[in-house]
């Protein structure tokens, strides 16, 4: 998603951006002049990501149009990006601030992004669960069918409706075609919903549907292959 890509670009570039501001501040530039120098370097090919360059360019254009520093706005979906630019605005209005303040801002930003990366890496484990869900649901359904078939083989005759006749009473242990189709729909929908929940937990937004769509694709393949799995299982267990 473009919005997620832009947010990632902004947050990945923030530590480098603050470090560059700090270096210019150390050689004597004030914060606003340092910001302009950083913007100039970005346009000349500084290794900033494209999404961040767009935000920085827009921010500096507002300044060039004569807006007061306090009225500038960082137009990005990243709250961390907005926080950093707001902090830079506050430092610029404060006047002759020491580079140590920018270094503290850099340390905070770097640690936050690093913690976010480690958390995201841990959460990616749950994506595997999302991919495995269709397989687990299909395995459960296949197991149920095998168990019902084995029960059927152990009882008396089969009634005309496909049920089992035992002791004068007929009852059905057979999963009808309609019931099977309903289970297939349940598998696909469950895979999609769980995928959305995982994407929300990992990416922070349901607009990223990578896991959900992948899980749906896997579930559709599993559903399409289910007759093959059922035939193989029936042959393996000697069931009709």
TrEMBL record:
It comes from Candidatus Marsarchaeota G1 archaeon BE_D. InterPro entries: ArlJ-like. This is Type II secretion system protein GspF domain-containing protein. The keyword Membrane applies. Keywords: Membrane, Transmembrane, Transmembrane helix. It comes from the Archaea. The chain crosses the membrane at residues 126-148, 182-198, 204-229.
């Amino acid at each position: 998603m473009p919005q997620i890509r832009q947010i990632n670009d902004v947050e990945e570039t923030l530590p480098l951006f603050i470090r560059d501001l700090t270096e210019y501040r150390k050689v004597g530039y004030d914060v606003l002049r340092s910001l302009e120098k950083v913007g100039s370097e970005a346009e000349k090919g500084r290794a900033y990501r494209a999404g961040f360059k767009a935000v920085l360019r827009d921010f500096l254009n507002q300044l060039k149009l004569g807006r007061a520093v306090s009225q500038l706005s960082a137009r990005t979906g990243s709250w961390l990006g907005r926080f950093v630019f707001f902090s830079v605005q506050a430092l610029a209005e404060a006047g002759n601030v020491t580079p140590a303040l920018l270094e503290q801002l850099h340390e905070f930003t770097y640690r936050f992004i690093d913690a976010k990366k480690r958390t995201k890496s841990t959460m990616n484990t749950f994506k595997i669960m999302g991919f495995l869900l269709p397989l687990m649901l299909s395995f459960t359904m296949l197991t149920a069918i095998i168990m019902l078939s084995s029960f059927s083989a152990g009882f008396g005759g089969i009634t005309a409706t496909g049920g089992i006749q035992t002791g004068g009473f007929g009852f059905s242990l057979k999963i009808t075609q309609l019931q099977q189709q309903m289970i297939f729909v349940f598998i696909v929908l469950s895979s999609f919903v769980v995928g959305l929940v995982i994407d929300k937990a990992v990416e922070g937004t349901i607009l990223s549907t990578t896991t959900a769509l992948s899980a749906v694709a896997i579930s559709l393949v599993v559903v399409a292959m289910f007759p093959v799995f059922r035939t193989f299982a029936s042959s393996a267990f000697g069931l009709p």
